[in-house]
Specification:
With 375 residues, this protein is of the alpha/beta class. It has 10 helices and 18 strands.
């Protein structure tokens, strides 16, 4: 006979970095949170993410609301990590305050990089133009062919897999529950129905399922989203750390050092539905680009080559806020920024659920802006 679990103040559907951050934040504020994950924790986009905390590097024209949210979240990260490690019993999360180098090889790329510098300076962001010799002094592994560089010292990085594991531990230690292999199929008044027919009674529900929300019933009007494929490589240096100390970006490709001899190379954004195959062409392009600027990349050992699915909305902004059904909230559509935006999403959404004064920063991300697109 199906059973019903009682006593949850909040059920979070989705065990990625955003869902786990929301649940942990709720636990910190005294709520009992239950996370329902259809597979394993962080098996989706969070498993494949590079983990860049880079609002300065990723700012683009016309994305001021996203920049403001990203800057708020990046500013929260040091305290977020310190509190998380304490709640998780000192667990390592791979957080490094490494900074980013944006680099250019030819004249056209150098001109584009100068426009990037001006865009950031106009917004009051910290950015330093470097001569090629100075860039190579700071990162000796860079190739001599470098034409120009920008140093963005305020960008950081984290290991999303370690981060999610620590969040799950912290939730449990705070009295919450993380239930893997527990798909939710429907939300109803006062609870959530599970795939086996059982249920969880709760006062509120947060839908944080990323690109996999389409089959969930009872949440009212949906947030329209599309899956965006990203292929990514993980490598390590048998000699240990030291090849790079900063993230190196040469759009669309990037190399992220973990600080312990491990590196991540990524950069694809492909509109191919739910396809998660990896391709020889993407591997060739990413390795060629990376090795051209950091020749030592070719000596690294390839550990993984995978593809994940990011959730993108029609305007590429996340949906953070109340659903059309009372008691249900959305935290989805973070596209390439789930890791970056997780602390701010959790703080602002849980604050709104607890009746804190409205924060104007959330207004551009109201899910209601997207519902007209479904009609």
């Amino acid at each position: 006979m199906a059973t019903t679990e009682q006593g949850a103040d909040l059920v979070v559907i989705g065990g990625g970095v955003v869902g786990l951050s929301v649940a942990w934040r709720a636990c910190v504020r005294g709520m009992r949170a239950v996370v329902l994950e259809a597979g394993e924790v962080a098996h989706g986009a969070s498993h494949h993410a590079a983990g860049m905390i880079a609002p300065v590097a990723e700012v683009a024209p016309g994305e001021e609301p996203l920049l403001e949210l990203g800057l708020r979240s990046a500013g929260l990260y040091p305290g977020f990590i310190a509190a998380l490690r304490e709640d998780a019993g000192g667990a390592e999360v791979g957080y490094t305050r490494c900074g980013t180098l944006m680099v250019a090889r030819g004249a056209d790329e150098a001109e584009a990089l100068e426009r990037e510098r001006m865009l950031r300076e106009q917004r009051g962001l910290t950015v330093e133009r470097l001569a090629p010799s100075e860039a190579r002094r700071r990162e000796p592994a860079l190739a001599p062919a470098l034409r120009a560089a920008l140093d963005l010292p305020d960008d950081h990085a984290v290991d999303p897999r370690l981060l999610c594991a620590a969040l799950a531990t912290a939730i449990e230690r705070r009295g919450g529950t993380v239930r893997e292999h527990t798909p939710a199929v429907a939300v109803h008044a006062g609870g959530v129905r599970l795939g086996d027919g059982s249920g969880v009674l709760t006062g509120a529900v947060v839908v944080a399922t990323g690109a996999a929300a389409g089959s969930l019933k009872g949440v009212g009007e949906f947030v329209p989203s599309r899956p965006v494929k990203g292929q990514i490589m993980r490598l390590h240096d048998p000699e240990g750390p030291g090849l790079l100390t900063r993230v190196v970006r040469f759009p669309p490709t990037y190399v992220v050092p973990r600080g312990d001899g491990r590196y991540v190379i990524g950069g694809t954004s492909e509109e191919r539905g739910l396809d998660t195959t990896v391709t020889a062409g993407a591997a060739l392009e990413m390795l060629r680009e990376a090795a051209e600027l950091v020749p030592g990349i070719s000596e690294l050992v390839l550990d993984e080559f995978t593809a994940g699915i990011r959730p993108g909305t029609p305007d590429n902004l996340p949906a953070i806020g109340p659903a059309s059904v009372p008691g249900v909230w959305w935290a989805t559509g973070h596209y390439r920024g789930g890791v970056l935006l997780a602390p701010a999403t959790a703080e602002l959404l849980v604050g709104a659920m607890c009746g804190d004064p409205p924060d104007v920063l959330l207004a551009p991300f109201d899910p209601a802006r997207l519902w007209s697109l479904l009609r």
